[in-house]
Amino acid sequence: MLEAAAAADIAVLDVNIGGHVIFPFAEQLKARGVPLVLATGYGRDGLPEAWRDVTVLSKPYGFDDLAQALLTAKGLA
Question: Within a domain: residue 4?
Answer without folding.
Answer: no
